[in-house]
Design brief:
Elements: E1 3-7, H1 11-26, E2 33-38, H2 43-59, E3 64-69, H3 70-74, H4 76-80, E4 87-88, H5 97-102, E5 121-122, E6 128-132, E7 134-135, H6 146-150, E8 154-155, H7 158-170, E9 175-179, E10 187-188, E11 191-192, H8 193-203, E12 210-212, H9 222-230, E13 237-243, H10 247-253, H11 259-272, E14 277-284, H12 291-303, E15 306-313, H13 330-353, E16 359-366, E17 369-372, E18 377-380, E19 388-397, E20 400-405
């Protein structure tokens, strides 16, 4: 019996895949099973899900093939029609072993009315582990299908989060990444994200390295800034859901921040901790985007000092308001995405090269490779998995840093 998970998309999916695999193995599942945990954030992500399903069936002709995740939730008919698929399971049921075992090609359950799921936690290499504290989203950005795949925002209790973190530390995790769909909307019994993290760190002294996944900058609370400036265990890399650098495009996206607010948040983060580094999601070619509007997004790379840009060419998604707006030519969208990536790559390379000769704290995750606290990829020759220390940076390339432990 083998259980394999194939994960597309976000860190929440990664945590859920690890949880599904662990629970099925503990329950004594006797069938060879492949679970494809899908993504629906773009049309390309859905295409890759279909491709992964076909490849999985070729590689595992006799296994039971189960499809879950946002693509399966948002457009289940697409996957019900695929002969390679044996069963579908919705996002609300995916962590329930009995539901997985009994899943068929029936339509997934309604995520809008489902109760909050159990905490998902885990990751393949066990050095860094993802722990989900929240799921769903109450916002309705005009380009996004995720609320239809995940439902409305629901936050898990501190006790549940604490137990999940403790279990991951017991399994050997050296770093915990807090994840979810919209973690800055975390609100359980009046407790926001910053306070929850403060209490988590106070209650679990073994937790020495804490990272956060993608954040909606406008929702970051005061306690989170206090934690950043006062506790070195909160690592200084922040990935922000910025999406654009032009106020009109932000308004048409139904984002809740302005360009000036995005720049101010980055300045506030760097004031709280000078070694903060910034990542960001940026969409190229949103409907109605003019060249001048696009130039504002290009300039955001430097204005927000973005050293890790995730650039998405806009693709219309069914049911979203943006799909009904005047669309740009696909060639223009691809060209703008390429320009954004080139600008971001140049800015990132300058950041990497500036670290040559410096000492950088880093954690080794696989082989002799890992990440610095600022989330630069690093290779430290001879360092074992799980090693943490100060590395002297000897070289920088487009793939990351090289260093030696001192």
């Amino acid at each position: 019996m083998t259980i394999e998970t194939i994960t597309l998309g976000c860190r929440l999916n990664m945590a859920e895949s690890a949880t599904m695999k662990r629970r099925l193995e503990a329950a004594g599942e006797t069938r060879d099973t492949v679970i494809i945990n899908s993504c629906a954030v773009t049309g390309e992500a859905v295409r890759q899900t279909r491709q992964s399903i076909r490849r999985a069936r070729r590689d595992h002709p006799d296994a039971r093939l189960v499809v879950t995740g946002c693509a399966a939730q948002v457009e289940p008919e697409t996957f019900r029609a695929m002969p390679e698929v044996d069963a579908l399971i919705g996002n609300a049921e995916k962590l329930d072993v009995a539901q997985i075992a009994n899943a068929s090609k029936a339509l997934p359950g309604d995520v809008m009315t489902a109760p909050a799921p159990a905490v998902a936690a885990g990751f393949g290499n066990k050095v860094r582990s993802f722990v989900a504290v929240q799921t769903g989203c109450d916002h309705r950005c005009t380009f996004c299908t995720i609320p239809y795949g995940r439902g409305n925002s629901q936050s898990l209790s501190l006790d549940e989060v604490r137990r999940a973190v403790a279990a991951e530390l017991d399994r050997g995790a050296k770093e915990i990444v807090i994840t979810g769909v919209d973690i800055t909307s975390y609100d359980r019994d009046g407790m926001r994200l910053g306070e929850m993290l403060q209490r988590l760190l106070a209650d679990e002294p073994r937790l020495e390295r804490l990272r956060l996944s993608s954040l909606d900058s406008i929702e970051m609370d005061g306690a989170l800034f206090e934690l950043l400036s006062g506790d070195q265990r909160l690592l200084p890399h922040f990935h922000l859901s910025l999406q654009a650098g032009d106020d009109m495009i932000l308004k048409r996206m139904k984002r809740r921040h302005s360009r000036a607010q995005a720049v101010a948040i980055v300045e506030k983060l760097k004031a709280a901790r000078p070694d903060v580094t910034i990542g960001a999601d940026i969409i190229a070619g949103f409907p109605t985007e003019t060249e001048a509007m696009f130039e504002n997004s290009l300039a955001l790379i430097e204005d927000c000092d973005i050293i890790a840009a995730h650039v998405f060419p806009y693709s219309p998604r069914e049911k979203t308001p943006a799909a009904r707006m005047p669309q740009l030519d696909r060639r223009l969208i691809k060209e703008r995405a390429a320009r954004l990536r080139a600008r971001a790559a140049a800015h990132r390379q300058a950041w990497l090269e500036a670290q040559v000769g410096t000492l950088q704290p880093c954690l080794i995750e696989n082989g002799h490779k890992g990440h610095t606290d600022g989330f630069a990829p690093i290779a430290v020759e001879g360092a074992p998995r799980g090693a943490y220390g100060q590395a002297r940076i000897t070289h920088a390339s487009e793939t990351g840093l090289t260093g030696i432990f001192e």
